[in-house]
Amino acid sequence: MDSLEKIGIDIRKIEERKTDTWVDISLEELRKGVVRFYRVNDPLTGQWLFKVCKDEEMQRTTVKAIKCPAGTGFAQLEGRTMLFQKSIIQGYCYDVLSLSYLDDKQRLRRNVIANMDEVPEILKNNFKIVDYEEAAGKKAVGKNFVTLCEENDEKKMLILFLIERAWPLSTVPPEISTKMIDLYKMIKSLEKAALEEIYATAQEQYQLAREETDRLLNILETEGKIQKADQYIKTRNK
After folding, report:
1. I need a surface site. Which of 60, 71, 96, 99 has the fewest CB within 10 A?
2. Residue 51 forms beta bridges with which residues?
3. Which of 21, 48, 52, 20 is nearest to 37 (CA)?
4. In terms of domains, do 104 and 158 share one?
5. Domain finish residue from 127, 154, 169
6. Cα(121)–Cα(142) distance, rounded to whole angstroms?
7. In this predicted model, what pLDDT tens digit does every residue of 197-206 receive, in sequence order?
8. Residue 42 domain boundaries
9. The predicted structure's pLDDT at residue 56
10. Claim to verify: residue 25 and residue 129 sit in the same structural domain
11. Which secondary-structure segment (H or E) carries 205?
């Protein structure tokens, strides 16, 4: 999974407020600045609503999940934030690289990345990842790597929230996600497809064995993206 374009995340700004107020949790105070709202459709996890708060004075941007897809993990992301701070590397801001996971009691946790081997390939291939000290100009206990993002590129910030906070909680393993998206797009283009036709096309176009195709179809059905009727499959209208 090496291309963000192939995944096709749809991001649309639906509202902009030139001046608004929000609570900055890390500073424990009210802040004021530009606030924008975005509706995001992520083929991997579902539909999201985000609030992006830009603090010019503190040179930091906060991304907050307002509405999340259904699911034990995603529900716990509602109201959670990701902070982007100005980097000493000109033209960039950064967030401390960490990935979500659910503990044995299904509670949302975060694992701060300490080794580059733990970094997902999608991040390595689409973003610059550097040591915290290189980006911030100082050391900090428990902060090892950061992901760099161009200043003012709020869409990239939203994508980073999805990759670091949401994707690790998805029922779809990252290594097969693009294949699942390809399969979903194929079914959608056919409107209504015979199961045997799907098996044949999946094998021919994406080199998917019958068992792999069944696994992906089950995930898509569980997530409400497709529905089965006899030996036919079609996408659900959303």
Report:
1. 71
2. 37, 64
3. 52
4. yes
5. 169
6. 22
7. 888 988 888 7
8. 4-169
9. 94
10. yes
11. helix 195-206
